[in-house]
Design a protein that fits this description.
The structure holds two protein chains of two kinds. By secondary structure, chain A is mainly alpha-helical. Chain A has helices at residues 2-6, 9-12, 17-21, 27-51, 82-110, 113-118, 127-138, 153-176, 179-184, 187-190, 195-234; strands spanning 56-57, 71-72. Chain A folds into two domains: 23-59 and 68-118; 122-223. Chain B folds into two domains: 8-34; 38-253, Oxidoreductase, molybdopterin-binding domain (Sulfite Oxidase, Chain A, domain 2, Alpha-Beta Complex), CATH 3.90.420.10. In chain B, a hairpin with a 5-residue loop joins β1 (103-108) and β2. Classes of the chains: A mainly alpha, B alpha+beta.
């Protein structure tokens, strides 16, 4: 077997060619990733437009100018303007984001993508390997091609938190702000303790999502932008520039 | 490299697209028949509005879905408003006379076109609710509204079966930056037990900044649907010929007609 393989010279240089042949990211993951990118951008821009109508946050059921706030952003109050198209774009993008996210989650469960690729292995949860991953990140050490084929512990925990905590929180708090939804399912707002609390949590959850995107993009750049983005488009890992 | 777009893939994609398109057409026709298409459904942003409206209507189609009601102790001390009251001479004259000469006209697709004085509305069976009122801008307060259920008045004038919208015309708010206001409700919200023609707030007559003498209160939607300073109500089967035909003045300024979200 080994001799048969070594007869193919071009393949010799890449002993892990077998794993390189299977796509780095499945078709569904690639498709939903880019749809999510577009819808998230729409949600972010429109969310900011809505925020500009009243850049002030409260806790509890109610809050308005003249009542105590918990956060006053240094932004102008732009009334009767951007929140109009902002709301329309926000809910259109939210529909795309939620339907696309549902497709991603269902397919991730059916194909065992979450179990195989994202749920951390027991050995990775040991302090030694945990420390190694963190210190590699802190020293901005580039992963080798071999290790870059699987997610490390930090990536796994972060992705799982984004998919199964932040997105559910932002959808839940969004529903809690909709008077029609709440009239049918009051629990959306009652467990949070109020509609203004929902609005505030919605804002903080979106801040964390923005932080995730910034770190995510920074990491992609550090790990090799062309390579990683290419893998998310075509599914294939291409050889590094310094290897060709 | 394998061909990414094989013939089989192309055929499958083509068939799926065709099926999807015809499925959408059938869905659109069905949605229209069951009143799931909002008047401002046009364009890409209107598509999002339609998805929201069409998915929320069936959820709320029975009247057991009620906006949360609060305790008297939870009524907000500060209840802000947006925009000043109407500056029109008619309105100022009626206000000076404490609305003794004010009448609410109801016409259109009704068996008995009528007009009611404030005293007459107050003699009808009343309902009060303490509800959360949120502005689309983000701020909110809790207040008690008292009035006659809109459904009671609609039954009194005899709404004809082909009616689809209840249209509200207020006295024009000259100071309002977005121009002349008007609005409409579909029959589901118009007949909802919490939808009131409200003449009282927090135990007093409706204060002028909150829409005296009468405003509509629609607690299952955002504040901008609770139109103030009412002067006339028209029952109609289409809103195409009113304003820009989008169902209210809100979409004329980039906002949505439906305020459930």
């Amino acid at each position: 077997m080994a001799t048969a393989e070594s007869a193919h010279l071009p393949r010799l240089a890449t002993p892990i060619s077998d794993s390189l042949d299977s796509p780095r990211h499945s078709g569904v993951v690639r498709l939903t990733h880019w749809i999510n990118t577009v819808s998230f951008f729409g949600l972010l821009v429109s969310g900011f437009a809505i925020l500009l109508a009243h850049p002030r946050f409260y806790w509890g059921e109610t809050g308005a100018l003249g009542t105590p706030s918990i956060l006053d952003l240094p932004l102008p109050f732009m009334r009767g303007g951007p929140s109009g198209w902002g709301r329309n774009l926000h809910f259109l993008s939210a529909w795309v984001c939620v339907l696309n996210g549902a497709l991603y989650v269902v397919s991730g469960i059916l194909t065992q993508h979450f179990r195989k690729d994202l749920v951390p292995a027991k050995v990775d949860l040991a302090w030694g390997s945990l420390w190694r991953v963190v210190s590699n990140h802190l020293r901005l050490k580039r992963p080798s091609v071999e290790t870059s084929l699987a997610y490390n512990l930090l990536q796994r925990v972060t992705y799982l938190a984004v998919i199964f905590v932040l997105f559910p929180v932002i959808i839940w708090t969004g529903f809690a702000m909709a008077p029609a939804i709440v009239s049918v399912f009051p629990v959306f707002v009652t467990v949070l303790g109020g509609q203004q609390t929902a609005r505030t949590l919605h804002f903080f959850a979106s801040d964390l999502l923005v932080l995730f995107v910034l770190v995510h993009v920074a990491m992609v750049c550090l790990a090799g932008f062309t390579n990683r983005v290419g893998a998310m488009i075509t599914g294939q890992i291409t050889a590094r520039k310094n290897r060709t | 490299m394998s061909t990414v777009f094989s013939r089989r893939k192309l055929i499958t994609t083509g068939l799926a697209t065709a099926a999807g398109a015809s499925g959408m057409a059938v869905a659109a026709r069905l949605a229209d028949r069951y009143g799931l298409i909002p008047p401002d459904h046009g364009g890409l942003l209107g598509f999002g509005q339609t998805l929201t409206y069409a998915s929320q209507r069936p959820l709320m189609s029975n009247h057991s879905s009620l906006a949360r009601e609060f305790d008297r102790s939870e009524i907000s001390k500060i209840c802000p408003v947006n925009g000043p009251p109407p500056e029109s001479e008619t309105y100022q004259r009626l206000l000076a006379g404490q609305f003794a000469d004010w009448r609410l006209t109801i016409d259109g697709l009704v068996a008995r076109p009528s007009s009611f004085s404030l005293a007459e509305l107050k003699r009808f069976p009343s309902r009060s609710h303490i509800t959360h009122q949120a502005c689309e801008e983000g701020w909110s307060f809790i207040a008690e509204s008292t009035g006659v259920p809109l459904s009671y008045v609609l039954n009194l004038v005899g709404v004809l079966p082909q009616a689809k919208y209840i249209v509200f015309f207020p006295f024009s708010e000259k100071g309002f930056p977005l121009g002349k206001k008007w609005g409409s409700l579909d029959m589901l919200d118009a007949y909802h037990p919490q939808t009131l023609l409200a003449y009282g707030m927090n135990g007093e007559d409706l204060p002028t900044p909150h829409g005296a003498p009468v405003r509509v209160r629609v607690p299952r939607q955002l504040g901008f649907k609770s139109l103030k300073y009412l002067s006339r109500i028209t029952v109609t089967d289409t809103v195409k010929n009113i304003g820009k035909g989008l169902g209210s003045s809100s979409p004329e300024h980039g906002f949505s007609w439906y305020g459930g979200i």
